Amino acid sequence: MGSVTVRINGIDYNLKGKDDEEYLNYIANYVDEKVKEILSKNNKLSSVAATVLAAINISDELFKVNNDYNDLLGNFESLQKENDKLKQSLEDVERKEDEEKEEYVSMMQAIEDLKLEKLSLEEKNSSLLEVLNSKNNELEELKNVQLDEGQEEDLSEQITELESAAKKLLEENNSLKLVNREMKFELQSSKYKVMDLEKKYLDSQIKLATEIKKREPYLKVKDNK
């Protein structure tokens, strides 16, 4: 516990406190300056009156400082809450951005798969057309062949088989064409979905940048504290 003798307005006072002598002297000098300031403005005041007025002025300063501190504390808490909201909003934007990135990658992979499948179907369709043309050529050749009655019956059966095979190949070819058209439509739809995802991704980037910009002043306040 510190103990020191101080002089305030010409009167000695013995001060004791938990603080050191330097601090007690600092407080006493401050009070002494306040009292002398009041007396300098009105030398008719008594020492007691000047001391009372100094105490009132010092109390006024204290209350104003406390009010300012409470206001600052309230503002800081409000800023802290706003900062937490912005932080949560930023996390939501980043999470949505990650989800859209994953969806975009998945969609691009699906498009590549569709392209490969479309290419495979086109190759298969081309092969079927070659086989179909070959069967039709064989059929025409057989129809033009001059045969006796016994061979004609066998030829008739071969023609029937070839016509059946050609019909089947034609049906398969038409089916492949239908699938190919459906795949083209699906591929086009996927491209539109990708374009939509790219727009959403760009929008999320803009929103993310906006949230970061809004958050910067609150971060600075927090760092300064």
TrEMBL record:
Keywords: Cell cycle, Cell division, Coiled coil, Cytoplasm, Septation. GO terms for cellular component: cell division site; cell septum; cytosol. Pfam families: ZapA. GO terms for biological process: division septum assembly; FtsZ-dependent cytokinesis; septin ring assembly. Gene3D superfamilies: 6.10.250.790. It is found in: Cytoplasm. InterPro entries: Bac_CellDiv_Activator (IPR053712), Cell_div_ZapA-like (IPR007838), Cell_div_ZapA-like_sf (IPR036192). Residues 69-182 form a coiled coil. Its main location: cytoplasm. Homodimer. Interacts with FtsZ. Activator of cell division through the inhibition of FtsZ GTPase activity, therefore promoting FtsZ assembly into bundles of protofilaments necessary for the formation of the division Z ring. It is recruited early at mid-cell but it is not essential for cell division. This is Cell division protein ZapA.
